[in-house]
Structure formats: C-alpha cells, structure tokens
Amino acid sequence: MSKVFEMNHPLIQHKLSLIRDKNTGSKEFRELVKEVSMLLAFEVTRDLSLEDVEIETPICKMTTKMLSGRKLGIIPILRAGLGMVDGFLNLLPAAKVGHIGLYRDPETLKPVEYYCKLPTDINERDLIVVDPMLATGGSASAAIEFLKDRGATSIKLVCLIGCPEGIAAVQDAHPDVNIYIAKIDEKLNDHAYIVPGLGDAGDRLFGTK
Ligand code: PRP
Ligand code: URA
After folding, report:
1. Complex-level ipTM beyond the 0.90 threshold
2. Residue ranges lining ligand 2, Cβ < 6 Å
3. pTM score, whole prediction
C-alpha cells in the first residue's frame, strides 16, 4: 500500500486558507498556488539521493554533496495542474515537463483524455504528477495509468487538496504511488466536489466558469 503524506508546514496551511477563500481572485489565486507548489516541491523532494563531489571553494578543496540518481519529470494534469508547474520548476529547473489533458465528464464524472505530450525518456525519470484537486481520484488514476502504459516506473502524486474517497481510489489502483497532499478534506458532495475544498480549481486559476 502506498503512503499518504499531509504537508503540515505552517506556510503551506496559511497560504492554502487564502487559496480556499472565495473572495480570493484569479491573480492572487494563481500566485498562491505557485507559492504553495514551491513549498510542496521542497517537501516532496526530501528523499532525493545525493552523492559526494569534489569542488574548490575560494578557500580550499572540499568534498560536498550534490544531487545524483534519476532525473525528474513534472507531469501536470491539464488544466488545473498547470498552475503548479512553475512552483515546481522554480526549485527543479532541470526537470522536464510532460502534459496530460483530462477533463471530468460532467455527466459520468469519468476522466476523458484530450491531450498527451511527454518527455521521450519517462521510463528513466522519477515522475511527479501534479493536480490541485484529488476528488474521486478518477483523473489522477487515469493519468498515472497513461504514464505506466508509456513506460513510467517511478511516480509520485502531489495535490493541494484531497479527500478520503480520492486517496482510496488512487491507492487501490496504484499501490506503488505515494501521495503528497497539503490538506486532506472531509468528503465529496453529491457533485463530486471536495467539501470544504476550494471550488473548481481550473475555473479559479483561469477565470472561467
Ligand atoms: C479537476 C481537477 C482534477 C479533477 C479532480 O479538473 O483539476 O483534474 O477535477 O477530480 P477527480 O479526482 O474526481 O477526477 P477538471 O476535470 O475540472 O478539469 P480542468 O482542470 O480542465 O478544470
Ligand atoms: N475538481 C475541482 O476543481 N474541485 C473539486 O472540488 C473537485 C474536482
């Protein structure tokens, strides 16, 4: 069974409260999502491996640490996942970015794929799937399935807000994928929106309705 990490850092929780507020407009919402994503990126990369390297400071030679191991890939689920990419790239500028376009059919609530463009070497990368909302878990599970079908072997899922239903669905479908969430909310409502949540993440990011 995969692990679920709730990111309780005070800055993450403070900014998430501002994101949730219905009076927060798109400009501020986008900025806050970017800031929280950067903080999440910091937490999510705690287990990256390091190796010893020799360098020379202006004073003397030394052995120090630098990142080693597999390269990274950031995979936003369109649209709302796009809002998290810049925050991740601020900390991980060498990561490649792949896009998976999914929307939830409003009738069936099932994810429908409309776009997919990935780095060619995803099988050699540690992938971080980003999407602000983990509601039924259908979109995240489908995105992870697409990545595995195309050769991915190492995947983490990072969300701003999740709920027990979505977590259980992803854990069930993908027991190898650890899940990182800023806050786990109470439940889904009858329209499969997270309660209390933040509303429709894509609409709030991009000012649509
Ligand atoms: C939202 C959100 C997730 C999905 C979560 O996207 O960004 O991708 O819903 O719901 P689920 O866990 O029940 O699948 P949406 O389908 O609204 O598309 P958008 O990002 O283009 O607005
Ligand atoms: N998608 C969203 O944007 N918000 C929710 O609460 C659920 C799905």
Report:
1. yes
2. 80, 133, 135, 193-194, 197, 200-202
3. 0.96
